[in-house]
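Cont'd.
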Amino acid sequence: DIQMTQSPSSLSASVGDRVTITCRASQGISNYLAWYQQKPGKVPKLLIYAASTLQSGVPSRFSGSGSGTDFTLTISSLQPEDVATYYCQRYNSAPWTFGQGTKVEIK
Amino acid sequence: QLQLQESGPGLEKPSETLSLTCSVSGGSISSSSYYWGWIRQPPGKGLEWIGFIYNSGTTYYNPSLRSRVTISVDMSKSQFSLKLSSVTAADTAEYYCARAHRYYAMDVWGQGTTVIVS
């Protein structure tokens, strides 16, 4: 199976900082990559699909890029409400594997 | 607006079969464009994809769970279900149902239901 590896596993940044999370697939997955945000105690929420397409209603400070094996999620200006764990997920073929998650906190 | 709602016992005994149902409202479960799936999250851990069903019967399961998992759909009730046999404490988790699409990923999630195996 194709493995998904996220880095870092956690980060702490100041409000207004630019934050980047990376996700690497062990094999090429084209652009079949989604990003989810899970706030503490809440249901995961789809942020980005097809590697770079923002889901409706998601703030424009979130963006995604990449294709093949290397992907990034960027928050252009970190806000207090962005405190959450972020997961990537490949969905090119079953099983739709998740990365292990990146916890984002405010410094 | 499509909504999903999980239901089922919150407590299971080891070796028994966990059974959960996801009720779909505000949209059609019979659309051939969508998959209907299950995801779980053990306490304090990450998300694990369990599997999905589409086209009224085609299923895909996580290889790590395949021998114990069955996902089925009841179009007449707008529900789909998860059965996980021979449960152990390692199956204790929050279980989510979700709608999925081959291009849009998992765009609608249920609120989740907690299952404790003890």
